Amino acid sequence: MTEPTESQDATDEKPAPLGGLPKAGWYADPADESRQRWWDGQQWGTQLSTDDAYSSTRRVARSTTGLRRAGDWLREAIAQSLGRFGHFLPLILLLVLPTALLSSVAAWWVFREAIFIVDVDSGVVESTGLPSSPAPWVAFVALQIVALFGSYWLFGSATHQSEAALDDEPVSWSESARAGLRMLPRVALAFLSRLLVLALACVLVGLLTFALSLIGPALVVGFVALALPAVLIGLWLRLSLVGTIAARSANSSVAATMDEAGVVVESGTPARGQRTNPLAASWRMTSGFSLDLFVRFLLILFVYVGIWIVASTLSSLFGVSTEAGTPPYVPGEPLEFKVSDVLPANIALQAIGALFGGLGSGARQIVLAVASLGLHRDISDVRLRDHR
Question: Model pTM?
Fold first, then answer.
């Protein structure tokens, strides 16, 4: 699509009177969403898009909330992930694979000789073979934290790479890596804040469960079986866009000004000191989209499981220990479990398996980042259309 000239005629309708106007570009035509109309930054132009790919995408049926069908959303996310594979792969190799390798080797080193003995009757668990020195444990925990922040770095970098491609301004993977590093504090804080909220929800549900246990055990079992998963899934869905909102608001190439609901209302340099709370913005932005979010959650979960199965299968090709294993369980006797039974026989095989695991973890994070960006843009489009 070619940018129209400044002499083009224009209509009076604006795409979004929310705290500012979007930058010049192609947007869904308010009169017919099967096509795009040029917006010059102040008003609608008369030039229409003839992009068949866009038209076919916009003709697909939408849900009652106005979002694209979940299947179309997921197909686009996977297509974008594969289409930018040459740019995403270096990010995985740089940001995820080294930490995945080191953290996996550290786990092997710490737990390779561990044996856990469980008294089935009392539920008491004893362990032997674990390191007594604090150094291995400090290294193990530190590497797990580094790996976690590496995944956040990858999420921000993938968001930057995908957004640039969607805006027809593709950038190199190294530029996205640098942008992801700048975004890392905000993205990490957003994800960790969500984790804290979910943990607090678990504590509150646990306290309520304890209170109900004073009434009757059957009621407790039923409550925990239904309430805890529902609360956690519901919170996760409402806060599912925290990472994307944090990344977009910190993305200097987008420099997006967002309203309190996380909707991009203006592109350009944000007001000095302006900050968008990703938790609050995600909560407001996803209001009214519960069913859409749940369906997308199931689809992403399906993709996650598929990637995990492939990565685990490749990792398992290198086998596990063939040394003396856990003795068979004898009723009435303590249950003994040797961790070496589920670990490769040596550190080299552990490292090779970790490489496949790291690739799988990176692929999942890429798909999540691209899909979350698509969802954020879709919801933003709906919110903007509602304010026209």
Answer: 0.76
